[in-house]
Structure formats: structure tokens, C-alpha cells
């Protein structure tokens, strides 16, 4: 039996990674299919931190692909998919939508299912050329599939990532879709999954070891504040430029 390949891209977002790994482990508890996971990290992300999370959830033989500044995260995505391609029947991508624009072309007779915000027009055009059918699933599952399928697979929106993963897992196994790809992004600070709703032991253990892993909460807060201020400055600049 060929494995299910999963490529995850993170940008020093360990909370999102922990939620994603939890979703994967939960979704695959009832299947005997082997799973191969490749995590794409940036040079700023500590591989030690990533391995700590993976080991906590019992994931063995984790492949780490570092996205260097020279090649960028897109090259790392392609490299990750190449590593998994030979041994995996399907590859599911978890991460930012931009990865779709640079992935190697897949067979044009395949259906692509995207769980993400609607991309820019040029990217839509690129995907329509690359695939026979593209579904942009921007409003969860309610407007794209038959009502009976939705009812049979209804879920609590609080568990957005887990539910989307489970649904797409069923889609890729279904004969109705020859290929499916899940792209998901965090909806809030905890990726749509509240810390109190799943594995408190993980968060307690992780908090105790943050100092050992080199985590600095003040530095993290400052980085987030600077990032938000830069985004605000760009918005103001664009607004002024459009009025002039």
C-alpha cells in the first residue's frame, strides 16, 4: 500500500504546526495507510523545536526541508513533493496558498480542491490551465458539494482544520475525485482549534520546555507588533497613493 504524503510549510509558527500535526494524527487513527510527512521550514525555525512537537505526537522519520533565502520556500515545496512523490499515492499540502503557483504541473485530467482564501486572478488563470477542474473552497464545504455529502460530513466550525482535513481525506479516497489537495490556513491564533479543546498535556509540557527551546515571549510579541505596524503602514501608503 502506497503512503499518503503530507507536505507542511511553517514560518516559525509552532502553534499552527502543533495544531496541524494533532489534526493529522487524529484523522489517521482509524486507517492503516502509512503516512510520510515532510515539513518545510525557514532558516529561522529551529529544527529542534519541530522535532520536539513531532516526537510528542509519536511521528517517526520526519523529513525536514529547510527553505534557504537563496531558493525560497517555493523551491522547498517542490523539493518536498519530489521526495514524497515516488512512494506516495497522493500528496496533500498544508500551508500557504502561494505554494500552488509554483508546484510542478500535475496531470491536467486531475481535479484540484483548494481550501484557502480566493487567490489573485493570475493564479486562478494559472490553475485553470494546469488542471481540468479547480474548486476554490472558500466557504468551508457548504456550496461546492452535494447536500447529502455535506450532511453526512457535517462538523463543528470550531474545529476547522481538523474537519477540513477529514473531509479532504475522504475526498481523496473517493472514486469521484482522482486527485485532491488540501490547502488550509489558520483562522485565528490557534488554527481554528482551541487549546482547551484537545491536548492540554501537550501545551503544559510545551510551556515548561519553552525556555529550553530558546523561546522568548517578549521577542515574539515585539516581532508580531512590528509586523502588524508594517502592514498598517503599507495599507496607509496604498490608500494615500490611490487618492493622489
Strand order of the largest sheet: 3-2-1-4
How much of the sequence lies in strands comes to 5-15%
Shape: elongated
Given helix and strand content, the structural type is alpha/beta
Mind summarizing the main beta sheet?
4 strands, parallel
CATH top level of the largest domain is Alpha Beta
Number of domains: 2
Integer average pLDDT: 54
**CATH level-two architecture of the largest domain:** 3-Layer(aba) Sandwich
Explain this structure to me?
This protein folds into 2 domains: 3-200, Rossmann fold; 217-244. 45% of the residues lie in helices and 14% in strands. It is built from 9 helices and 6 strands. The strands form 2 sheets. The protein has a 4-stranded parallel beta sheet with strand order 3-2-1-4, with helices on one face. Helix 5 (121-130) links the parallel strand 5 and strand 6 (133-136). The radius of gyration is 19 Å and the shape is elongated. The model is unreliable at 96-120, 135-163 and 175-215 (pLDDT under 50).
Characteristic terms for this protein:
2 domains; Rossmann fold; 45% helix; 244 residues; 4-stranded parallel beta sheet; single chain; two-stranded parallel sheet; 14% strand; alpha/beta; 6 strands
Summarize this, please?
The chain is α/β, with parallel strands linked by helices. Helices cover 45% and strands 14% of the residues.
Amino acid at each position: 500500500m502506497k503512503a499518503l504524503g503530507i507536505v507542511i510549510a511553517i514560518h516559525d509558527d509552532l502553534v499552527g504546526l502543533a495544531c496541524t500535526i494533532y489534526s493529522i494524527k487524529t484523522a489517521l487513527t482509524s486507517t492503516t495507510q502509512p503516512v510520510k510527512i515532510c515539513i518545510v521550514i525557514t532558516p529561522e525555525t529551529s529544527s529542534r523545536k519541530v522535532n520536539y512537537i513531532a516526537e510528542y505526537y509519536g511521528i517517526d522519520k520526519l523529513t525536514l526541508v529547510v527553505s534557504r533565502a537563496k531558493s525560497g520556500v517555493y523551491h522547498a515545496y517542490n523539493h518536498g513533493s519530489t521526495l514524497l512523490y515516488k512512494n506516495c499515492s497522493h500528496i496533500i499540502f498544508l500551508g500557504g496558498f502561494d505554494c500552488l503557483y509554483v508546484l510542478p504541473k500535475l496531470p491536467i485530467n486531475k481535479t484540484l480542491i483548494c481550501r484557502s482564501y480566493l487567490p489573485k486572478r493570475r493564479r486562478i488563470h494559472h490553475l485553470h490551465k494546469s488542471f481540468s477542474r479547480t474548486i476554490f473552497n472558500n466557504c468551508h464545504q457548504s456550496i461546492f458539494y452535494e447536500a447529502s455529502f455535506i450532511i453526512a460530513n457535517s462538523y463543528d466550525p470550531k474545529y476547522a482544520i481538523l474537519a477540513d482535513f477529514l473531509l479532504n481525506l475522504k475526498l481523496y479516497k473517493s472514486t469521484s475525485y482522482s486527485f485532491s489537495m488540501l490547502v488550509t490556513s489558520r483562522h485565528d491564533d490557534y488554527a481554528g482549534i482551541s487549546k482547551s479543546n484537545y491536548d492540554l498535556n501537550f501545551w503544559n509540557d510545551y510551556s515548561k520546555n519553552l525556555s529550553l527551546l530558546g523561546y522568548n515571549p517578549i521577542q515574539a510579541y515585539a516581532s508580531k507588533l512590528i509586523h502588524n505596524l508594517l502592514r498598517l503602514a503599507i495599507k496607509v501608503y496604498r490608500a494615500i497613493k490611490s487618492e493622489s
